[in-house]
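Follow-up to my earlier ticket, as requested here are the two runs.
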Amino acid sequence: MRLRWGIIPGLLFLLLAASCQGGTAMVSPTVPGSPAEPGSPTVPGSPTYPPEWVRQPVFAGRFYTADAQELETEIDSYMAGKEPTTGRTLALIVPHAGYMYSGPVSGYAYADVRGQSYDAVILIGQNHYLQDFSGVAVYPGGAWRTPLGLVPVDQELAQAILQANPAFESDPARHSQDHCLEVQLPFLQRALPGTPIVPILIGYPDPQNAQALIEALAQVLPGRNVLLIASSDLSHYPTYDQAVRVDRSTLAAIETMDPLQLRQTVREEMSAGVPNLLTTCCGEEAIVVVMEVARRLGADQATVLHYANSGDIPGGDRSKVVGYGAVKIWAIK
């Protein structure tokens, strides 16, 4: 049976390897303005936000260190020695586990766009916790905080996406309990400093949700210089060897740039009777959206930059692992 709600509550004890645990609620926003949030660094000419418009770092100190200097050093070490590959990157697929597990893999993806210029980054993930959330939620404005400071939300772009489909939700509380987008931000702050974001969370993992988001983004994004990011881990809880086989199959399907091939591969692997296999990729819909939208924007290649799983860390348990892949989606011309 395919995973329907990300990681179910009974499996939350696998916090770091599985990368799933909730956070606290957030107050709905009002119109942004002054005064600045208490405790915020003041930079001349920078926007200010009232507290209710700033999504706080729920998972700092849990999935990654809350110490800013240590965090910078750790992320830089993950990207060190890796040079951008050929071609302009239109999209990335990156994992979202605790940094000790997936950080070295994420480093390959973010090193590939380090120092490049994008007008905005669209972050797409799948709901892991909220069982009453069945739609698509676009964070409407304000900023997200990490130990490295504030990351502004591109409000104009977020509102354009919301207007493209009136069924999309703008309640920021939908984002308050999920880690899958938050853990991307410190990497973005080191690789693409100052670049605004549009966080998007898909609720119930239904292909109709994915298609609705594909059509909205395909309507809004042409002519904009954006980077798409799908946040997803790969196989959950098979043995090390089985994970490597299943994950290679999933990544090969992604490299075809064909969402239907990915869906077929997921169905086949989930029906193959692999012991303890809960899902092949916990962000399947996010990956499908990014693959298809990038293709419509001109991408014609997907390249796996790196693969590993939680059994690869020193002392890692190889009886139940989670897989992680870094994928670049790009255009040859």
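Run two:
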Amino acid sequence: MIKIKGLTKRFRNILALNDLNLEIGKGQIFGYIGPNGAGKTTTIRIIAGLLRPSEGQATVAGVDVVKHPRQARDVVGFLPDTFGVYQGMRVWEYLDFFGAAYRIPRKERIPRVDEVLTLTGTDAMRDYFIESLSHGMRQRVGLAKTLLHRPDVLLLDEPTNGLDPRARIEFRELLKTMRDAGKTLIVSSHILPELATVCDSIGIIERGVLLQYGTVKEVMQKVQQRRVVHIEIDGDAGKAGADLKGYSKEQLQVGEVMGNLIPATCEGSDDVISGAVKFLVERNHKVLWCSEAAIDLEQVYMRVTETAKAGSREMVEDA
């Protein structure tokens, strides 16, 4: 659905994007993570056909956004981090106005406005003056505006910025609804735990460079140097722990048994962990459950960016 190859953008002496390569499939939510000035908004504006890259290619639903920016806007819906609302205009009037801007014929605009109001849960607000709405409801109306021309791709730049916890949860569920409807979404956000729960894949960008990219699980596994596993035993956990030490000292190290719980660390794949469980069962130990203590997305982000900064310092020192 979205293919980016060698995308580079320079603003005079500032390199905002540096050889970005990315591919996002249809019906996926892609979480774009990075600090202010990392290149997230620049990427989104290029995909939306609002900014020309210095180099590289970007296609959306088969449309080259560089060569055919107007055509790309027909398949893309862009919700910026801040958007204008007009005083003295009711919600339905606001949407009708933008429906006309999208060149939707008058006879189609009324049912189209009703459609997006229902989809975003704002139908009860149709006659409210838009300036009277809470920030969370304005964000919903902004999304409704973005959906008016039925785009296949949604570009949401910091959509939950400034929302209270309940509004963020509701907006997150709304994103899932969009995905289930077949939309492809790029969501940039600083609220990292939210992206971990809603996104199919993530990308971590800093200073215009994409540092990590993949599913949440893949990125976490790349960053996490050692995996921590806990195995609960129904029976003599001490004996089970002693037996497990003979499984593979190179790949799995067994810690001190705590009650019925055996902690272990490993550097191997899932096969190492499943093999350890099988090893215990074959020796007549009753395994109740096995779980891995995963690092959260904020820890992943910090490790990835710290590694990048350390690499930059080494290059400067070598020079």
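The only thing I checked on run two: The chain has two domains: 2-218, 225-293. Let me know what else you need.
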